[in-house]
Amino acid sequence: MATTLSLRSAARLAARAAAPRASGPRPAIVRPAVVFQNQIRGYKKAAQPMRDVMTGEIIQMPDIDASLVEVTKTNSPKDKLPPSKLRFGHTFTDHMLTIPWSSSSGWGTPEIKPYAKLELDPSSTVFHYAFCLFEGMKAYRNEDGTVRLFRPDMNMARMNRSASRIALPQFDGKQLEELIKKLVVLDSEWIPKEKGYSLYIRPTLIGTQNALGVNPSSDALLFVICSPVGPYYASGFKPVQLLATTKFVRAAPGGTGGYKLGANYAPGVVPQAEAAKEGYSQNLWLLGEEHALTEVGTMNLFVAFKKPDGSVELVTPPLDDVVLPGVTRDSALQLARAHESGELVIPGLPEKMTVSERKLIMADLVEAEKNGTLLEVFGTGTAAIVSAVDKIGYEGRDINIPTGPDGLGAIAKGILDRITAIQTGEIEHPWSVIANGSKA
Question: Which keywords describe this protein according to UniProt (predicted)?
């Protein structure tokens, strides 16, 4: 008579078969549940909790495991727009990555599947209490087919840091990086071949618990979508104009300004609209009675001053907990410091230069403009990489800043050119990570 084995019975048989044969009584063998799941035919492969070998008690929930990814390719590929028609963040590739998480079972099975709408309960915590964080990354494709990511480890580390700040789950960044590589390679044909184009990557983590109440979310969803984008300055460099606002505050000590949370961005829309009414592109965010400089729009800030001895000081405000630790900011700092030390020479950067992370106040810029020592002001970020500033409105007047004949100062252009060369593989560098293993 045929007998159907239960999962538990089949697991016991698997354990017995795997046990070494020896004379005398055979000791009991306890193996992690994940082994049994993957050995039994017909059951879906999935990450399982790690259990104590003696008690069977769960001691660690499953982390993200890239080897378990399930890939479903679309049967209806989208039509690709000509590169000249692309608008930032309006066109998305054929596929997306999703990974669910639960406090009771840990990270679930990663899925790369056709791009589609999410199904969320109206009570999901993301809608009510802003349990949301995200990252911004880019992938580049060379003429030989090589697909590259720029410093993805930095994005993974920052994403985990943001998750810890709003009680969302953390994860193995290397595993998510591998999954993003798979997604990007699958949709690599969406990366335009023209120079200056790239694939913008948006990893996002949201709380999805179906219940109201300000508590840690018991459920979450990590997803990644991609969008082909063109060069930020399609028709040449265009300096931006800033309004140094004393009416609005982006972040305060002890708050969340140093984390890439969705809640940090919506409150900046009204201040930006008010700046636009006065003829400015973005806000320059100030803090405290001294009007300390923090960020420019949604970018990190750099200011170059000429010193009495003829050298140049490149300054950026310290991170503390009000400034976002930008990946491009860190890259610009490392490159400038390497130039400062003589480790490498970056064209455009002055021979004698010091690099500082220190407090800057508006009085510093006002005085530097008066005495002619204000050389450059620029922002750094994923989208534009470097964005020059030519005017800052402050207390009823404009501070004018040199930008050079091409709309970009020599220091800003030198840093932009070096980072771009690394991102595209023109200059081989550990920051440029090949996603498709080898050149295709």
Answer: Amino-acid biosynthesis, Aminotransferase, Branched-chain amino acid biosynthesis, Pyridoxal phosphate, Transferase
